[in-house]
Amino acid sequence: MPPEYCEYLPSRKKCEQWLEDTHPKVHERLYGDKAIVDKMAMSTLSEEKEAKEAAKMEKAEQKSEARIARELEAKRSSKVVIKRLERNKRKCATTVYGLHVFGIDLKSTAKMFANHFACGGSVAKNPQGQDEVVVQGDFANEVMDIILKKFPKVPRENVEIAPEEKKKKKAPEV
Question: What is the number of other CB atoms lying within 10 angstroms of the CB of residue 165?
Fold first, then answer.
């Protein structure tokens, strides 16, 4: 992005700081004291309108910072849950959900698991309506190891294996 557009970004201060650190001459030309005086001389807005515009830009910057903080907090608090589901008698599937929060492509992850374990892997919706990766077979521990190795964005403390739910046996009919 051209440095001339820094003033229109929601994170204007961060952009100007980067520009000042990496290209001080360009920063002085665009945002130095002389450049500000020239802009004020060319401005056709009244002082009242300029104040409103400045307040609007400040509000947009605060919203952007708050959004970034919310997204970071969501990443910290979210969990990647690995669960083993029993299908028929001796068949089971391993499901992984929560990867989408960390910006991981689920389709390519399912394909990677399918190739690694030589089994079927797909993306499906769970009952809550979220996308999850489904791998045919009992690979809960191996999936956890692969996630931690291949995706450094996912912290170790955010990955957990859900405890198995034992199915209740039917009472014998007399």
Answer: 10
> Rounded CA gap, 91 and 120, in Å?
13
pLDDT at residue 52 is higher than 90: no
Rounded Cα distance, 134 and 102, in Å: 18
Q: Say which CATH class 79-161 falls into.
A: alpha beta
**Distance between CA atoms of residues 57 and 61, nearest Å:** 6
Q: Would you kindly state where each structural domain of the chain is located, as residue ranges?
A: 3-76, 79-161
The mean per-residue pLDDT over the stretch 69-91 comes to 81
Report the distance separating Cα 77 and Cα 143, nearest Å: 21
pLDDT in tens, 128-167: 888 889 999 888 889 889 988 988 888 888 888 887 766 6
DSSP state at residue 154: S
Span 83-134, pLDDT tens digits: 888 888 788 889 998 888 888 888 999 999 999 989 889 898 888 888 889 9
Torsion-angle region of residue 137: left (phi > 0), alpha (psi -120 to 50) or beta? Answer: left
Residue 83 CA to residue 134 CA, distance in Å, equals 10
